[in-house]
Amino acid sequence: MNRDIFIRNLTKEKIRMNPKGRNANELTPEEFEKYFENFFDMIFEIAGTDISSLTGYGEFDGRNIAPYPSLEAFIRDELINEKTEGYWKNWTQMFGTTFLEKEYYFTIAEKALKYAPYCEGRRYLANNNTFFCNMIVDETGKTYCTDWGRAGIMDFLMDFAILDLNKPYLLVPEKLYEYAKRKNIMIENFRERFLCMAYFKGIATLRWHASIDDLESCESIVRSINALEDRMSGY
User: Fold this and answer.
1) Domain that holds residue 107
2) With a threshold of 0.85, does the pTM exceed it?
């Protein structure tokens, strides 16, 4: 089944696949301050989807199945295991030939795995591609995801971690912590779960940008990853 149709059916057609509006990447920090709760509401609405008919963890495959038995298995296969086909075939050859440094890469990957137990059992629908360039803000300020190609089942904090990775100066986890308190939303083990998702997506995204020799983005991602522990120390 086509992915968009699958997602639309799964969410009882709450998801608009072709929204009209402004690309969220164009928002100024001041505008994000005005609209950020709409982004958060959107992510929680996605996470509230009933997925009781689905099993597993990870990005949906071509059959719209989440193929991994645990979140740890998903992280380990995505970040650690060698690939025998596809884009990431022989990806470890990037060490020493691109921006990607072996010791740093595996240090961050191990941090994601360290915090993975806190995310086990946290099975939610996640867009898993909530970079601002993939979202639309309509004239009322309501926000929409436009690309569901990497959607899957994982901790919903993944979608917040991607927002933060994209633009850490917008202080997404800091705002989310206060938002959850105001809304009486319980996010157990907030720090550990956010760090798990942020390290996972951060190092995976670093690998991607290294693969296309995007040095500027690589340096920005490393700064974001390195700042996480201090930023999350109070939660």
Assistant:
1) 3-11+21-231
2) yes
